[in-house]
Specification:
Chain lengths: 522, 177
């Protein structure tokens, strides 16, 4: 709370600035850079996968290593790239958007960040251990992850524990900041949607990350201390694992998409030069998605042998979730309708989000039909579904946010031409990668297999080429960021013509300390 | 800030609460399965037969015998399939042998398919009620006495029981579950 006492100094110099900083902007930047690094590490693993799948047969890697790649790719992207990126955005933007001088718990903030490098160092170090890295899929179903797991599973468990503690502390910080540190005149229903969606996400995190922690703890005791939570021989039940995991897992997928909804709800009005259509309905839709997300977990388990009533309940509950999701899509489109739109890079990413996320929503609806899911389950169709909601969904929203707020962070405009190149290469690359997966999935190609039947060869080649295009075009983003940090056209305080909100009231780049006296909210 | 502290404590409480809730789900799922008979788990207590026999229907009952991974026992169903009327008493025999030279303890776990059948499958006596202790190379015949409930829904024409023997020699005695 140095700022409250009125120290007006800039950041410390050298490495200690980053090690000991309690400044929300520094910590936000560290989260974002960390997640970008993880994005590239996880991405390289995806390229190993795509390299192996260029043609049928085994050519590049051993099946055991292939399994480690699919597992580590999923874990790193979910826990290392997407989640920390959103936390970084929250750190940077939530205080600026609600007119607070910093996060409520600055030292805790520093701690939550520095847990992550340790967690992921530990996770990545399993790659060089005896028996190899975790190879049981990012969903780590027991008994694959207990009885049959490589010895490195213990490191995996502790990595998940650390990352989980980090997210929970981060979430507590966000909640306290939003509930207690808003500018006095900012009522809940005046909060920007990014703040709203993050508040709800933070509650989801507090609710489900501890359940995940409990689940991996049970794995730990099953492996090392002779309990039998998931072992039928000792009176346990492997299906219990799936219930526990998905009780966490389904809310988790919303944790990865609700902040994205918030970002899109900031960007679309700006570049349509119109206020957001249906603000209140957006808030209610987000809340109902969050509540409903606790009632649908078994749609991941339609084939484990749940009884008919269960199949029906989880089928209808899942379909119900698409109603508030549809409300959101409708509102974004209605916001654009008759707006005077321009198409700068953030807006391109946002529009692509709306279109492609909706495709993912539709494939989700297909999967939700439980009799049909018996055919689709564990095929590439599921892979296509969740990559459509996560790549052009979560990842594109993060990219959109980065372009949207980068001038505010650095004080410089990014290179619009390169930004558009990045967008179009990513757009083409990801559709080439993931769209064909729908077809091979429907035709029955199983997921997580290094070799496949010859009939899937052509589509897989397309996927692989698209994957490499997508992967390498992310280097353009790095170039954009580096150039923007180094210099460029100076950004004004209100970077975008139609932008509204407190973050645009502070100069660009945002000074080290902002809003030491709370601003007035219209 | 006082209000911060209160909120933080509440949130930490919620975190701890949810952590414990995760563990509470373990018995809760079991309770739920018990009440509803889901999961194909059978209640492991002997049931009295009411004596009424429904001769209008004949149900196929099949038996599958398995051993869990690496369990060095031989376990086969002698009666692979039989036809019984609901309410009628029946008996199925199995053969089990310890193939090692050491004494071992095994526990059979049963699973019923379709799971709806679990509720209507009554065992008056079963080797799966107890742990089986077999000396090295010892062979034994084991059996289950059972009857089907006359309330068995009409759409169930066939019931499959799958028994799996687990090696519990090294485990603490477990409550059969
Ligand atoms: C309209 C909304 C959605 C519906 C109806 C839906 C439905 C489903 C269903 C039924 C499955 C299980 C498929 C199977 O394994 O057979 C599934 C898997 C999945 N969904 Fe969705 N979903 C929706 C939105 C989302 C969103 C927004 C995300 C994340 C941002 C997401 C992420 C995932 C993931 C990661 C999996 C696969 C998990 C795995 O097995 O590895 N879904 N979805
Ligand atoms: Cu789900």
């Amino acid at each position: 709370m140095t700022s409250a006492v009125g120290h007006h100094h800039g950041p410390a110099t050298g490495i200690t600035r980053w090690l000991f900083t309690t400044n929300h902007k520094d910590i936000g930047s560290m989260y974002l850079i960390f997640s970008l690094l993880m994005f590239f590490i996880g991405g390289s693993m995806a390229l190993v996968i795509r390299m192996e799948l260029v043609e049928p047969g085994l050519q590049v890697v051993q099946p055991e290593f292939f399994n480690q790649m699919t597992t580590m790719h999923g874990l790193i992207m979910v826990f290392g790239a997407v989640m920390p990126a959103f936390v970084g955005l929250a750190n940077w933007m939530v205080p600026l958007m609600i007119g607070a001088p910093d996060m409520a718990l600055p030292r805790l903030n520093n701690f939550s960040f520095w847990l992550l490098p340790f967690a992921f160092f530990m996770l990545l170090s399993t790659l060089v251990m005896d028996g190899g890295a975790p190879d049981f899929g990012w969903t780590f179903y027991a008994p694959l992850s207990t009885t049959y797991a490589p010895p490195s599973v213990t490191f995996f468990i502790f990595a998940i524990h650390l990352a989980g503690v980090s997210s929970i502390l981060g979430a507590i910080n966000v909640i306290v900041t939003i509930m207690n540190m808003r500018a006095p005149t900012m009522s809940y229903m005046k909060m920007p949607l990014f703040v709203w969606t993050w508040l709800i996400t933070a509650f989801l995190l507090v609710a489900v990350m501890p359940v995940l922690a409990g689940t991996v703890t049970m794995m730990l005791t099953d492996i090392h201390f002779g309990t039998s939570f998931f072992d039928a021989g000792g009176g346990g039940d492997p299906v219990l694992f799936q219930h526990l995991f998905w009780f966490f897992g389904h809310p988790e997928v919303y944790i990865m998409i609700l902040p994205a909804f918030g970002i899109i709800s900031q960007i679309v009005p700006t570049f349509s030069r119109k206020p957001l259509f249906g603000y209140a309905s957006m808030v209610y839709a987000t809340s109902s998605i969050a509540l409903l997300s606790f009632t649908v977990w078994a749609h991941h388990m339609f084939t484990v042998g749940i009884p008919l009533v269960g199949e029906l309940f989880f089928m209808y509950a899942t379909m119900l979730i698409s109603v508030p999701t549809g409300v959101k899509v409708f509102n974004w489109v209605a916001t654009m309708f008759r707006g005077s739109m321009t198409f700068e890079t953030p807006m391109l990413f946002a529009i692509a989000f709306i279109v492609l996320f909706t495709i993912g929503g539709f494939s989700g609806l297909m999967l939700a039909i439980s009799p049909a899911d018996f055919q689709y389950h564990d095929t590439y169709f599921v892979v296509a579904h969740f990559h459509y909601v996560l790549v052009p969904g979560a990842v594109f929203s993060i990219m959109a946010a980065a372009y949207y707020w980068m001038p505010k962070w650095t004080g410089n405009m990014y290179d619009e031409y390169l930004g558009k190149c990045h967008f179009w290469c990513s757009f083409v690359g990801l559709n080439l990668t993931f769209f064909p997966m729908h077809f091979v999935g429907l035709a029955g190609m199983p997921r997580r297999i290094p070799d496949y039947s010859i009939q899937f060869a052509d589509f897989n080649l397309v996927s692989s080429l698209g994957g490499f295009l997508f992967g390498f075009s992310q280097l353009i983003f790095v170039l954009v960021v580096v150039k923007c940090v180094k210099g460029g056209k100076k950004a004004e305080a209100v970077v975008w013509e139609g932008a509204e909100g407190l973050e645009w009231q502070v100069p660009s780049p945002a000074p080290y300390h902002t809003f030491e006296t709370p601003p007035e909210v219209k | 800030m006082k209000s911060n502290r209160k909120l933080i404590l509440q949130l930490c409480g919620a975190t701890v609460g949810m952590f414990l809730f995760g563990f509470a789900l373990v018995p809760l799922y079991d309770v739920f399965c018990d009440i509803t008979g889901l999961n194909g788990k059978l209640e492991l207590v002997a049931k009295k037969n009411t004596g009424v026999i429904d001769t209008s229907r004949a149900i196929k009952v099949q038996f599958i015998a398995n051993t869990n991974e690496n369990m060095p026992w031989d376990f086969v169903a002698k009666d692979v399939e039989m036809t019984v009327h609901p309410g009628e008493n029946a008996r199925a025999d199995f053969f089990v042998q310890n193939l090692t030279n050491e004494q071992m303890v095994g526990q059979a776990i049963v699973s019923v398919s379709p799971s709806i059948g679990a509720k209507y499958f009554h065992k008056t006596q079963c080797f799966c009620f107890d742990r089986q202790v077999l000396n090295g190379k010892q062979a034994q015949e084991v059996s289950v006495l059972f009857s089907l409930d006359t309330d068995l829904p009409d759409r169930v024409k066939k019931i499959t029981l799958s028994y799996t023997f687990f090696d519990i020699t090294d485990l603490q005695p477990v409550a059969a579950n």
